[in-house]
TrEMBL record:
This is Kinesin-like protein. One of its GO terms (molecular function) is microtubule motor activity. Transmembrane segments: none annotated. Residues 1-64, 490-527 are annotated as: Disordered. Residues 490-505 have a biased composition (Polar residues). GO terms for biological process: microtubule-based movement. PANTHER family: CENTROMERE PROTEIN E, KINESIN-LIKE PROTEIN KIF19 ISOFORM X1. It comes from the Eukaryota.
């Protein structure tokens, strides 16, 4: 075939046009289906979509990309009774194959013999048989050490209504969701480090309902406003934060209390459909247990979000208030999709302010955060359009990059706190002395010698601790003297300023008196 015949029109028999030399069949079948339009040319990023990990890929814990996972649920009984069949196949734990159930017209020669499946490659892909524990192990568990070290982390479930988002995040008593599993491991890790570090854990729980932010732990409160703090980032003004938490069960009790106040209603697609976006935030403040006049506090924040699902009024049969709720849910999810598209395209402007939910997710999507996105999809052919849209947005989210930075606050204690610091140091010394008071082994045990190595180690640690306490005490005394000297200097300066002001005022008063007194009287006064 000559070169100029490569672009010749197809023959009348309806056969497809001849392929140019060097183009394989697979490349012609899936070029536009594997990549999204926002990904640009098929250069270096295309290799990641074909299953190869790029440098800095989110598949590795601590990577710079958002970790994107897809979870497919099983067919529901009502879907099976309606004749529904599965159109999703999971391969190799990373590949999702979506089959187009639409039939091709007999006279559509260009698409008659073409494959209608679309392939997507993600960091994790989980089948319908995967339990919540497996989902947690493969997607979220690596975030816990980061939160304790002072990083921000976010996990959110995304997808259409009745796709299984609430089941993934909350679960049920027989199978706990990601929220409970994450909190259990978080408190377990905190308990392992309590001997050398001091932790303070607080939590808050809110919902975004009809574009209004409401505190689920205080349902009688008014709607709240979102503020952007230069240090904390996006935060909610007036949100109640419950502190002094010591176990995951305490947070789960608050979570169940908040879920009772959350807005849920029955629709045609789901019996207990979430009508709002729920956000659970856990703040972890970690500092060194050794008392000092300056404390470095690591401020970690873990956000776990259960998004409401996108809806089609024709499927949910919503009317009245339910339709208004669905419109607001679709509006916020559309704004989220626009933000994902803008961030994956690396454009200058990202429309975070189009919705309250996108404002709350500003740091999670493109800021100081390590983010995990779990896209829940339905395998039924009836929900093909919703599943296709969810996979497209999840595919775009793979290209979003975040920059996680440790949040460290430096706290300088006041002089009045020095006595408390010394008290803490003395109590710690008493604990070390108690550790050194090891009773001798009784003679009937048959032990010939004690563990001298451990005793020497403890004595060495005790001596180092004493030396450190002496240095700190001297430093406290020096600072106290320095503070007193500064106060004396400050009082001298204030006295000098007051004397200067008094002299200045007297001089002004003298000038005024001189202008009012006749010259002869002034001469007499001068004499």
């Amino acid at each position: 075939m000559r070169p100029h015949d490569a672009h010749a029109p197809p023959p009348p028999s309806g056969l497809p046009p001849p392929r140019p030399p060097g183009h394989g069949q697979e490349r012609n079948r899936f070029p536009s289906k594997v990549r999204s339009l926002s990904e640009g040319p098929a250069d270096g990023r295309a290799s990641r979509e074909l299953g190869e990990e790029e440098e800095g890929s989110s598949a590795k814990p601590g990577g710079h990309n958002i970790l994107v996972a897809v979870r497919s649920r099983a067919l529901l009984p009502q879907e099976r009774s309606a004749g529904g069949h599965a159109i999703i196949t999971i391969c190799n734990g990373t590949t999702v194959i979506l089959e187009d159930p639409h039939t091709t017209a007999a006279d559509d020669y260009l698409r008659l013999n073409k494959s209608k499946e679309r392939r997507y490659h993600f960091d994790q892909a989980l089948e319908e048989t995967a339990q919540n524990l497996e989902v947690y192990e493969r997607t979220t568990r690596f975030l816990i050490p980061s939160v304790i070290q002072g990083f921000n982390a976010t996990v959110f479930a995304y997808g259409a209504t009745s796709a299984g988002k609430t089941h993934t995040m909350l679960g049920y008593p027989g199978e706990p969701g990601i929220m409970l599993l994450t909190l259990r491991d978080l408190f377990s890790e905190v308990a392992n480090q309590k001997s050398s570090l001091h932790f303070e854990i607080k939590c808050s729980f809110l919902e975004v309902y009809n574009e209004n932010v409401r505190d689920l732990l205080r349902p009688d409160s008014d709607f709240l406003d979102i503020r952007e703090d230069p240090v904390k980032g996006m935060c909610v003004a007036g949100i109640s934060e419950v502190g002094g938490l010591e176990s995951a069960e305490e947070i789960m009790a608050l979570l169940h209390q908040g879920n009772k106040n959350r807005t849920t209603e029955a629709t045609g697609a789901n019996v207990t459909s979430s009508r709002s976006h729920a956000v659970l935030q856990v703040m972890v403040h970690q500092r060194d247990r050794t008392a000092d006049i300056v404390a470095h506090v690591n401020l970690g924040k873990l956000s776990m979000i259960d998004l409401a699902g996108s809806e089609r009024a024709s499927q949910t049969n919503n009317k009245g208030m339910r339709m208004i709720e669905g419109a607001n849910i679709n509006r916020s999810l559309l704004a989220l999709g626009n933000c994902i598209t803008a961030l994956s395209s690396a454009v200058a402007f990202v429309p975070y302010r189009d919705s309250k939910m996108t404002r709350l997710l500003k740091d999670s999507l493109g800021g100081n955060c390590r983010t995990v996105m779990i896209a829940n999809v339905s395998p039924c052919h009836i929900n093909y359009e919703d599943t296709h849209n969810t996979l497209k947005y999840a595919n775009r989210a793979k290209n979003i990059k975040t920059k996680a930075v440790r949040n460290v606050a430096q706290v300088n204690y006041h002089v009045s706190k020095y006595t408390e610091i010394i008290k803490d140091l003395r109590s710690e010394i008493q604990e070390l002395k108690a550790k050194l008071a090891v009773p001798e082994a009784p003679p009937d045990l048959g032990e010939e010698e004690l563990d001298t190595t451990q005793s020497v180690k403890w004595k060495h640690e005790l001596m180092q601790n004493f030396e450190e306490r002496v240095r700190i005490k001297r430093r406290l005394i020096d600072l106290a003297h320095e503070t007193k000297n500064q106060m004396v200097q400050k009082s001298h300066a204030q006295v000098g300023i007051s004397q200067w002001e008094s002299g200045r005022q007297a001089q002004l008063d003298g000038d005024l008196d001189g202008q009012r007194t006749p010259p002869n009287i002034r001469e007499l006064q001068a004499q």
